[in-house]
Specification:
113 residues, alpha/beta, Rossmann fold, five-stranded parallel sheet, 33% helix
């Protein structure tokens, strides 16, 4: 399965651990932002959207400490995935209204991590 990992940027190291775990299970992680330099640009924004489009599922890592805090790119990625009819799994806490949509599966944590 092709999976896009969305997470608050300050938790990038945790997202990279999840990426390695998923890859060890045979999944393809499409999130190039986890392997790219830290840079804000039109090209990187377009790359992120292309990576979401290429995925079968968006995995949103969202700890409760990120309610109403942190970066907003993950919200754009989640909304883009929803618009495209992608499967969305939220790991952690529902912290905004869109996390309550019936089409989003919510789990407390990932097994094995």
């Amino acid at each position: 399965m092709k999976i896009y990992i969305s997470a608050p940027y300050p938790t990038r190291d945790d997202a990279i651990k999840v990426m390695h775990h998923l890859e060890s299970l045979g999944h393809e992680v499409t999130s190039r932002w986890l392997k790219a330099p830290d840079e804000l640009s039109d090209a990187y924004a377009r790359e992120d959207l292309a990576d979401v489009a290429r995925a079968d599922l968006l995995l949103a890592l969202n700890g409760p400490e990120w309610a109403n805090a942190g970066t907003g790119g993950r919200h754009v990625e989640l909304g883009y995935a929803l618009c495209m009819g992608k499967q969305v799994v939220l790991v952690g806490a529902r912290t905004n209204i869109f996390h309550y949509l019936d089409c989003i599966r919510v789990i407390e944590r990932l097994e094995g991590l």
